[in-house]
């Protein structure tokens, strides 16, 4: 249907030439696009143009006028100077008479009169009086009174005044008295109110005050700037520098960017934007460092500057960790190159896993506490774990950290808070002791260790563990026992190694309820060990005075000055708090200064050292040397001879407890627990501490110097290998494919997202290998562990000759595959010159049959039999897409004689040379490919929104029409919808969802029914484009603009079907020329083919956006399920990978949504973009995306589990960032539940992506899946999980259920002894088993509610049989005819928590419990499908939307 808009007079408008159309701009308004006129800009200097236009006479006139003006100005200046000189000479001749100052009086009553007289009268009257008196004296009239005279003083005075009237007579000169009187007059005028002089004086006074105030402020600013400069100078010394004493600019820019982005400070409004550099080459010395920071913080308040100093201090510590990590990654990269002797670019994954398992098994118990178990996820993929083991294994010993849960339980038996408070009070008996305690507790470890915490408490067998894990407890107990704490941070005066450990801090936590009500104490903290501690937040045990022999470089600062810069950081926000609890929690997290009365709030229960151990004197310091020697021997026996961990430098000041981290348990028994400082007096201790605080900062990291390079930031330049670029360069050097070179360059430039590695489960490339080993050793481990692992790998990784040859063959095949894809894709684009996206099979066959003069015709026909072409209606020609064309040519080549690679290149050369294109056609092809690529790129960078896709689609249509057709077109897109309101007008309708701007009032959001005029439904039914050359002569065209005259219905109309991957029609793209002023404006064949290509690319982009929407929906549902059973997760953030808008740059991550502690998901409607160059300190997201592997990271004291969402090809399409807060790791129960959620999400995403791409057929298992795509995405998570559980239940044997049926109350009735804890547990287990089985039975037998069978366990046993298992495996909780008693089922399950089921430890109960809750969730969703399943998805607005999807609520988190 043509979308004719209002009449416009376009005849007088200038035509746009084809050369200028390409530069035309577009304006976008939501779904509408209209074109702005092209603007031609010449690269000419405007001043040069103006100078050429100037005339000679004008130039001469300006010169003469300018000279005359300068002469007049100089004349005035000379006159003023002469006047000043004359006044100066007169003053020398006639000195000033200060007697006139007596006239100065500011009395208000006579002020105006006096000012007037001094100004108007007295300057003339006083000299007159003086002359008159002189005449009187001369004539001696005062002496000779009796002598008559004609002299009249009055007349004389009057004559003088008349002769010297200032209005008529020029000033003949002023006397000294008059000169002073004039000055007095000027001064008095200032005090006369409401006069010009008064107002001017006030203005001058205000200006003077402001000037003085400004000078004062400038002086203060100068002093502040100087003080800040000195502080920054000292801060510069805390950074680790390159050999030239400089810091990379990009590092400091990242520090400032991260500080400015802090939402609590709200600095974005008045801070200068930080333009982060793209390279590590630019460096800063101390002066440049100060200037850069000062430039961005010029308007900071003192409080903000103090926070910045703390932030810089923390970032300096983190930068050391970044360098340490980079050293480790470089070490592993060199190991990969060493093991990859064949230079094939990959290593075997299973061999790598086997070596890691061997290294782990042969390591000491203490070292295994640092490493992560390679037999568990994430080292083992979900698909490699058997279903029964994955869903039913509840063995806590299989945690990623060895004995993690058992260590946590052991910590719960430590002394209570009362003992802790008692011992702490002894330590902090006086304010001086408190200050000394704080000062000593913040002294970090010595440089060699580089640990993030000090191990002072270990679990069974000496296994170290980390901070804050919760014991398994009921929901009520957990929520009742919310606690808060604060931790002291480090300060700039400490050494780099000290800050890497973060300092030893004492943490205490108060009870909120009595211990009896709390049950198992919650929040018991486990001390970090051997590099496992949290960054900047390690703890030491209470009840023991903290001693430290580590030095602190204070740069000459006093203790008070250092304390003012110490960083304090709140610790441990408990998840799932109510609003009131959160407010109380925030209030309790106050930062503590250096002189606070106590270092932290009391904490209970808390790990402490028994009094016996505290009171034991430690051995003398002289034994440390022998300890270090024995430690070296112990570490050398970790695995083999070659697994020795070399000793660190500067090991002279290691605390004995820190030393225990690296020595064997046998040696630990021989070591005394003594510290030489225990034998020192208090003054001596303070003196020692003071001397240590003056030690300089170490420029090394664990004894290793920094080379000044961060290879992780330049990974692509040094290590990464891009096979496609190498093959493209080889093709460029081959003259046989000269016609394809430009096309291949365009293909490479249009490559979607660069830098990602595909996970295949068989082999590792370099990035994946490095990340795999880094995950194994952990980021908190010392470099010596990585060196030992590297040495072990070099001797243990041995390949046979056959394996090397196999690897080389795989590499050759991979290179051949990439080369073949590039050649065939370029050949397809050369043939598809108009960008339609399809080639006619008949045209290809006609040319292929002439290959070698038809000698291979029979072989080609034979190959054609193996090709499965799509079934088309009669009359439709077979068309091949790009992938089908490649597959067809490969099959043809496989049937021809000779080497496949040579034959393929020969066929490609033949097809290329057989088709000749003109230069104009090549340019048109290049432009159209660019416009089509922009449509797909708009989908990839849209932030899951269709509006940019509509925009680029209409832009491509209008640009091509103007450039290659000289037309003005209108276009709109209609999508098929189910007709629910008026089904009598057809079961489907077409709704216009987007159109060009001029047609918006008439077309947008309008609906076309089947009973209306139009050819769109004919296009939908036939699946072919329809072109109407002259709409005025066609009787079945519907015009949306009814105000247009019929005589103006002149133009062409083209309707094209929009098809998905299964060739199903889902909409129509319509284009018309009714607004074009030309009379002849039909669409040419090459234009129609290009519009078909636009429709094809739009369909791909449309489904790309919807696939991301469905993935977000699945993730929201999965997170909702997880949050109901896992309380320890702080937040989960979801990111999508997008190409960068800058050419030849890295990908970016878009933050789509964040789920907080309450399970409420905040969906960003305008998602922010994260660049790699802004994440030097937080690059774990990009590490995960690069390698497509799970990353475990710790940043700012918070631990993250970062999991990739993979494409079907294995590359990461997104990232899930699971923040577990201060905890080192989740409990094994929660860790397993997280794995279940992640596995189901990945399976559901893979299914969605496969269906939308056409790789797999849509498989609807449940009835609810047929209601629609959006609703199906909302329940797909539950359906996949239901299938997994049903498969697990199908693998159970009869013996698994027989053991459950033996749980009966009869055995308890026989025992008449008073109940003990064991009998109570047995009773709870019996109730759990019977309730769950009864709940399952009620699913299939709702009629039992009215009978007494449910009350009798013996009767219920009869229903537990093979038929019940079969019913469970075939059950559809969304079936329409299903009738269940929801209320009764919920009653059986609501009294049993997830923790109770886990503790019971039976796999059958575990399966049934999860199965029941998934079924309940699906039943609830089926009842409110319209409101509960469709979450609000992003669109382009500046606000947020919150969603909380139902996840089958489980009682008792």
Please sum up the structure shown.
This protein is an alpha+beta fold and 1453 residues long.
Description:
- The chain is α+β, with helices and mostly antiparallel strands.
- The protein has a seven-stranded antiparallel beta sheet, with helices on both faces.
- The C terminus is likely disordered.
Helix amount, in percent? 40-55%
Average pLDDT score: 75
Straight-line distance between termini: 58 Å
Shape: extended
| Poorly predicted residue ranges | 4-49, 414-694, 1427-1439, 1447-1453
Number of strands: 25
| Spatial ordering of strands, largest sheet | 22-23-24-19-20-21-25
The total of helices stands at: 53
- How much β-strand is present in the residues? 5-15%
The chain-level structural class is alpha+beta
Rg, alpha carbons: 43 Å
Main sheet attributes: strand count, strand direction, barrel closure: 7 strands, antiparallel
